[in-house]
Amino acid sequence: MTNNIYEYKDDQDWYVGSYSIFGGIRTLTDDELEFPLFDLSKIFRDEERGFPLSVTVLRYSSDYRLLSFIVDILNQEANRNLEVIQRQGALLLVENGKLLHVELPKEGVDVEAFFETSRVRETLLIATRNEGKTKEFRAIFDKLGYDVENLNDYPDLPEVAETGMTFEENARLKAETISKLTGKMVLADDSGLKVDVLGGLPGVWSARFAGVGASDEENNAKLLHELAMVFELKDRSAQFHTTLVVASPGKESLVVEADWPGYINFEPKGENGFGYDPLFLVGETGKSSAELTLEEKNSQSHRALAVKKLLEVFPSWQSKPSL
């Protein structure tokens, strides 16, 4: 028995928990807590200690986040190997290849879609050939029970021209076109750097700021040239922006977006990341995005923030019937 205190906190959810005798879940909010405590207590009940978790819910919006919080504590304290997998809006509790519990949404799930494959882990196709971007998404979605592919796994697919004038238009073009061609669930992002003093440029042209086919180094050099006469760091404010679109055949696409604020440095720093990461100073930290580890970046980046928003609405979107 340990005295470790665990906490999860974001804008929608806030939980505090411990591994202790005669535990349970209580709420300090007025939110209706619809959580499968009875089923979990039967699975993890100890004859001497009862349900060995004490969890206090201060904010609540997501069954997925609460179940993941409980699973994290059990994995650390009870040496379990539990995993929470989202599938067609349902939550699956799995351990070592065995299904322990299924939590269904109120509206149920589409039977054919739920059982259309023998694979427990669903596949999410990321609409990019950029392995750096794919690596970030894979690290995020692997924990959610998804196998991640990218367009390099489908070399015969045509390139989708990003002819949109906004991030959402471009992300929709990629996600919806590739989903129709493959029949798969596809996530596309259009991400870019918006520099305030440049009126939001390079924006949707971030990948080709120095010209079509420009390298990261060439784009960075172009940006530094454009900011050559901006001498104060406070005047070089910028945001990394991401719009995510998830498309699936016969469904209305899901759209979320997020910004990551910071500043443009006067010279590159760091060896990690890609794109404008070496120039982008994160908030007020003075550290560039390219100086962060992948784990650090995935906890705070524009993509991480957008994925966080995505996961809050993804289960209900997945469970909606096709059009």
Task: Please characterize this protein's 3D structure.
With 323 residues, this protein is α+β, with helices and mostly antiparallel strands. The chain contains eight helices and 13 strands. It folds into two domains: 5-115, no CATH class; 123-319, Maf protein, CATH 3.90.950. Helix content is 28%, strand content 26%. A hairpin with a 2-residue loop joins β5 (82-87) and β6 (90-95). The longest helix is centred in the last third of the chain and has 18 residues, at 302-319. It is globular. Homodimer. One of its GO terms (molecular function) is ITP diphosphatase activity. Belongs to the HAM1 NTPase family. The active site is at 190 (proton acceptor).
Shape, please?
Answer: globular
User: Strand content of the residues, in percent?
Assistant: 25-35%
Biggest sheet overview: 6 strands, mixed
Number of helices: 8
Give a quick precis of the structure.
By secondary structure, this protein is α+β, with helices and mostly antiparallel strands. It folds into two domains: 5-115, no CATH class; 123-319, Alpha-Beta Complex (Maf protein), CATH 3.90.950. The protein is built from eight helices and 13 strands.
